[in-house]
């Protein structure tokens, strides 16, 4: 059963897919081994895992403990940076609306990752 059958989960999945596409598109622009390249690789892995958990639900996504633990810092980083953007821009601006959408998506996926990690640690 899907944990979030409402449109907010669908919107979050669309947004995560968009973020994932953007990160994947940027990856070739950086040299392998550089800090930016590693950051994007970690974000791609975290967003992929979060999207899988959002779509499949906790307990069905088959994620390893290491993958879940590795996904938390990049997702929290996205959330933190987005909070700063949201504070800088009003909700009526395009940047503010996008920041709010990202924060909403992160508020759905971070608990899912933490739930799955708690279930595995169990």
Report on this structure:
Helix content is 77%, strand content 0%. The protein is an all-alpha fold and 122 residues long. It has a single domain, classed as Substrate Binding Domain Of Dnak, Chain:A, Domain 2 (Up-down Bundle), CATH 1.20.1270. Helix 1 (7-26) packs across helix 4 (94-121) and helix 3 (65-88) runs antiparallel to helix 4 (94-121). The longest helix has 28 residues, at 94-121. It is globular. It starts with 6 loop residues before the first helix and ends with a helix.
List the helices and strands and how they pair.
Layout (H helix, E strand, L loop, with lengths): L6 H20 L8 H22 L8 H24 L5 H28 L1
Helix pairs in contact: 1-2, 1-4, 2-3, 2-4, 3-4
Give a quick set of tags describing it:
122 residues, mainly alpha, Substrate Binding Domain Of Dnak, Chain:A, Domain 2, 4 helices, 0% strand
Low-confidence stretches: none
Fraction of residues in helix: over 70%
Distance between the termini: 21 Å
> Could you name the CATH class?
Mainly Alpha
- Please outline the major beta sheet: none
Annotated CATH topology: Substrate Binding Domain Of Dnak, Chain:A, Domain 2
Average of pLDDT? 91
User: Looking at the structure, what is the overall shape?
Assistant: globular
Helix/strand-derived class? mainly alpha
The domain count comes to: 1
Gyration radius from CA atoms, angstroms:
15 Å
Number of helices: 4
Number of strands: 0
Please trace the helix and strand order, writing H or E for each element: HHHH
In CATH, the architecture is Up-down Bundle
Percentage of residues in strands: under 5%
